[in-house]
Design goal:
Elements: H1 40-43, E1 50-51, E2 58-59, E3 67-71, H2 72-77, H3 83-87, E4 93-99, E5 102-107, E6 125-129, E7 132-133, E8 148-155, H4 159-162, E9 169-175, E10 184-194, E11 199-210, E12 215-226, E13 231-232, E14 236-237, E15 246-247, E16 259-271, E17 277-290, E18 295-296, E19 303-304, E20 311-327, E21 330-349, H5 350-359, E22 379-397, E23 404-424, E24 440-462, E25 467-487, E26 520-540, E27 543-554, E28 582-595, E29 600-612, E30 615-619, E31 625-629, E32 633-646, E33 651-660, E34 663-665, E35 668-669, E36 684-685, E37 697-709, E38 712-723, H6 732-738, E39 745-756, E40 759-766, E41 774-778, H7 783-789, E42 793-796, E43 801-809
Parallel strand pairs: 6-9, 13-19
Antiparallel strand pairs: 1-2, 3-8, 4-5, 6-7, 8-9, 10-11, 10-43, 11-12, 12-16, 14-15, 16-17, 17-20, 18-42, 20-21, 21-22, 22-23, 23-24, 24-25, 25-26, 26-27, 27-28, 28-29, 29-32, 30-31, 32-33, 32-34, 33-37, 35-36, 37-38, 38-39, 39-40, 40-43, 41-42
Length: 810
């Protein structure tokens, strides 16, 4: 954003203006978007970035929050096209991904390693697309990154301005908006080859068309084919009651985990007058995924032996409206959106059946056909999710050049999640089926609703020219519910779960969304508040220090497993009660400095986080997810730093690191029916246990050399990312069954690019040394069964990839 266009950029008080551009706050990477800031070769320093992390436009270095920002140019330089591409360069972010579109994000070590079930706790990190939250229970939208203005990563609790599920941090994806001032367009074509895998390719493009001086449209489209690299190899399994082993010959396939992503975005911006504008956006994406995104640890690199079809169709669209304007000197913003996401999933679940048949004699007796003959008891899943989210926010901001300034707003969102999972066994006897559903041995047919509303505000006062104080508060209400059906058919003798809990006679299609009946109807609601206090001291125009206390939260929820079904007698005491909201308290001291006449930035933060009574979900009775609050909690101290150095007008070096010491307080017992003192060793994690699923150390280094030879401009770039080992599970017994901790790894990328006129070409090699990073170790069911008697899996990054990218800008 150029200063000549800053009609909407509020100028900070004079003591905040920087002579050499605005450096990034708590940022690893910074680079200049086209038309944003000054060219570093002209200034000899580092470029400025404008962010909206505090819901107003500000120079990033002026924001006393730990914010990492990737602007358009940096996203292009790093060839970012999805979440994993930028997440690897954020030291305080880790994640687990079962497949594209189903990602669980963690920040600053706030992770218990729970199972992420659709009936369990909400995420701890919120994700926003422009002004609207796009976090769903099983992960945020996997948004293709192209023609994006910025990706902002806000570390630490963001409970005041962003609310629920921004407990540990917030990630914001901000699209480029229509620009009435000029026509622009671009496209790019890419092809690549994955080591021991298939070929991939991608096409992207956008066009920005001014219709007149006040109106413009921007249309963006993309098509991407991610190459498969995991092989489903031949395998057999012998079940106790079958005469012959079963095999997977019909599903053997090389490189079978490919992904096809298609999407588009259209936006219309209207400048109503000098003070008011409205932007409407319609965006949609469809991802078709084949295969499985894990490697069986017993079968070698990138191999599995699965027995049933595996695929996902994930499609979504979002309509959004943002209105911005002024009432006197005050800024007013309304942001509303409607999101509709649907997915259909086919999953192999044969590990579950094989594990139980191995561990429990007579398991196969429960599976037979209508003739009474034993059958292959292997399970497979056909699932479908239907998410709908509506959100609205109205906020007002006072002039930002005043000594006293504030932002205040109202927020409301409601998300419904229709859940259907059919666990099927081929040729299953009619008597064993869920009523009206052939071959369905177990059914989940539920509707989940998560609703919250809030009033929020932050007030800042400049105590002196150098010292300012900020206070924030968010008062919220939430209500979460689960209703529907889950369980077995009428004749199953394993458990009372299922149709045996139905009131009256099950009727096909008579329950929620076609379930046979309703055996679950539970909800929880509560009110509470989050807080923020901040002091910021500016030594001079290029150095500041801040101290912040902030809180973040996740709403509570209900357990579907119950000892008090709808048919229970009055006064029944449920052994699986709702779980409460959990809160994160953060104490942080941060610094931002610009040195060497604007050529060096050294920024960072030290923090201490207290995670009280955190929510944890695990598999309990009958393999059902149960969520409970830990009796104690966890403490997570840490430090994160970044350095950027414009060594010459052509050479830039940047790097960042995070070190954590996350520990469990007071011990944890997975058994929801007993206390820590009475916990069995296999269910217990002792005091001081390191929290799982996130490394305690992560760092990166990027070197970029820009050249201009004979009228050809270009760059040579190299980067390396390293993270150390991490725990695979919170409970030591579970981690032992999974094969121990997840190994540390380092991944290096290199690229060379050239620009001639409006053409550009880039050659790249990602994962140069073909390192398989151990990102997520897991089993298909409870570790005591699937990890003990069947298979464990490692979720890895893609192998070495060599590619070429060609594009043109107009």
């Amino acid at each position: 954003m150029q200063r000549s266009r800053k009609r909407k950029l509020r100028q900070a008080p004079k003591f905040r203006v920087f002579r050499h551009g605005i450096p990034i706050a708590s940022t690893l990477l910074a680079a200049m978007s086209p038309g944003m800031g000054q060219d570093r070769s002209a200034t000899g320093g580092l470029p400025e970035i404008i962010v909206t992390a505090q819901k107003r436009e500000e120079n990033l270095q002026d924001v006393p929050v730990s914010v990492l920002a990737f602007d358009t140019r940096k996203l292009e330089e790093l060839r970012v096209s999805d979440f994993q591409d930028y997440a690897k360069y954020i030291p305080n972010v880790s994640f687990q991904q079962l497949s594209p579109g189903f990602t669980r994000i963690f920040m600053r070590g706030v992770s218990s390693g729970d199972n992420g079930n659709h009936s369990g706790p909400l995420p701890t990190v919120g994700t926003y697309l422009d002004e609207q939250p796009v976090t769903t229970i099983q992960g945020p939208l996997d948004i293709h990154i192209y023609d994006i203005a910025r990706v902002e990563s806000l570390a630490g609790p963001q409970g005041t301005l962003y609310g629920a599920s921004s407990q540990a941090g917030t990630i914001r994806i901000i699209t480029n908006k229509p620009d009435p001032s000029a026509f622009s367009a671009s496209y790019a074509l890419e092809g690549n080859s994955v080591h021991d895998g298939k070929a991939g390719y991608m096409a992207e493009g956008f066009v920005n068309v001014p219709l007149n001086d006040e109106v413009a449209v921007r249309v963006v489209g993309w098509y991407k084919q991610d190459a498969g690299y995991i092989d489903n190899i031949a395998g057999t399994r012998t079940f106790s009651l079958l005469d012959e082993p079963v095999n997977n010959a019909a599903f053997v396939e090389s490189n079978y985990n490919d992904v096809t992503t298609t999407g588009a975005r259209a936006a219309l911006r209207v400048d109503l007058n000098d003070s008011w504008s409205a932007t409407t956006t319609l965006m949609g994406q469809k991802a078709d995924t084949d295969g499985f995104f894990g490697a069986d640890t017993a079968l070698g690199e990138n191999n599995v032996a699965h027995f049933y079809p595996e695929s996902t169709e994930d499609k979504w669209w979002q309509a959004a409206l943002t209105v911005e304007g002024k009432i006197g000197n005050f800024d007013l913003v309304y942001a509303g959106a409607y999101l509709d996401r649907k997915d259909e999933v086919d999953s192999d679940y044969a590990d579950y059946s094989f594990a139980y048949d191995t561990l429990y004699e007579g398991y196969g007796d429960y599976f037979f056909n209508d003739a009474g003959d034993p059958i292959n008891p292997s399970n497979f899943i056909q699932g479908a999710d239907d998410y709908k989210k509506v959100s609205q926010e109205l906020r007002i901001s006072s002039p930002q050049d005043q000594r006293l300034r504030y932002i205040a707003g109202l927020f409301w969102e409601r998300q419904t999640h229709d859940i259907e999972q059919n666990y099927l066994v081929d040729d299953l006897a009619t008597s064993l089926e869920i009523t009206g559903l052939p071959d369905t041995w177990w059914l989940t047919q539920q509707e989940r609703t998560d609703e919250d509303q809030a009033v929020f505000g932050e007030v800042t006062y400049d105590l002196t020219e150098k010292l300012s104080a900020t206070g924030g508060l968010r008062y919220f209400e939430f209500k979460n519910s689960l209703k529907g059906f889950f369980g077995f058919g009428l004749t199953n003798d394993w458990s009372g779960t299922g149709e045996k809990q139905c009131a009256g006679t099950p009727t096909p299609g008579g329950g929620i969304n076609g379930g046979p009946c309703v055996n679950l109807d539970k909800d929880i609601d509560d009110t509470d508040a989050t807080y923020k206090l901040n002091l910021t001291y500016r030594f001079d125009e290029e150095k500041l220090i801040y101290a912040t206390y902030a809180t973040g939260y996740r709403p509570g929820g209900v357990n579907r497993l119950t000892t008090c079904p709808p048919t229970a007698e009055p006064g029944c005491v449920d052994q699986y009660p709702p779980y409460d909201s959990d809160f994160l308290h953060s104490y942080e001291i941060g610094w931002k400095t610009t040195l060497a006449d604007g050529r060096v930035r050294f920024n960072g933060a030290a923090f201490w986080q207290q995670w009280d009574n955190f929510q944890f979900s695990f598999l309990g009775v009958n393999g059902l997810t149960i969520a409970k609050n830990a009796e104690g909690g966890a403490t997570i101290p840490g430090i994160e730093t970044d350095v950027q150095w414009a060594a010459t007008d052509n050479l830039t070096v940047s790097g960042g690191a995070m070190q954590l010491w996350p520990e469990l307080d007071g011990g944890f017992c997975e058994n929801s029916l007993v206390s820590v003192a009475d916990c069995a060793p296999e269910d217990f994690a002792p005091d001081g246990t390191t929290l799982p699923a996130t490394p305690t150390f992560k760092a990166n280094l990027i070197t970029r050399y820009d050249y201009d030879v004979g009228g050809i401009r270009g760059a040579l770039q190299a980067s390396v990312v390293y993270q150390n080992s991490s725990r695979a599970a919170l409970l030591p017994a579970d981690e032992d069954l999974l094969g121990g901790s997840q190994d540390g790894f380092a991944i290096a990328d290199i690229s060379a690019s050239a620009v001639l006129s409006n053409w550009n070409v880039e050659l790249y090699v990602d994962n140069v040394f073909d390192e398989l990073g151990d990102l997520y170790r897991f089993a298909q069911c409870d570790e005591a069964y699937c990890a003990a008697a069947s298979s464990t899996y490692d979720g890895n990054n893609p192998p070495r990839t060599i590619g070429i990218r060609v594009g043109q800008k107009f």
